[in-house]
Amino acid sequence: MEWRKSSRSDDANCVQVRQDLAAVRDSKNPGGPTLAVDLPRLSVVVKSGKLAR
User: Fold this and answer.
1) 3-class secondary-structure state, position 4
2) pTM surpassing 0.85?
3) First and final C-alpha spacing in the chain
4) pLDDT per position as a tens digit, 4-53
């Protein structure tokens, strides 16, 4: 699976997004852990403001 740099990342703090948008990882540790997420669904929740702190 291909990975790409998130458009929200800068050079020092880079998050990579898997091509199918099913996972994210730290670009400084590509062999390390990944976070499996449903990014389109998460984006809807974040934009709605429904996440509790």
Assistant:
1) strand
2) no
3) 33
4) 887 777 777 788 889 888 998 998 898 999 999 888 888 888 888 887 66
Q: Which residue has the tokens 């880079």?
A: 14
Please state, in angstroms and rounded to a whole number, the distance separating the CA atoms of residues 53 and 40. Answer: 20
Rounded distance between C-alpha atoms, residue 12 and residue 14, angstroms = 6
* Cβ atoms of residues 38 and 24 within 8 Å: no
CA-CA distances (angstroms) from residue 21 to 5, 7, 9, 52, 53? 12, 13, 16, 23, 24
Cβ-based neighbours of 40, under 8 Å, separated by 6 or more: 21
Which burial class, exposed, middle or buried, applies to 18 when counting CB atoms under 10 A from its CB (0-12, 13-18, 19+)? middle
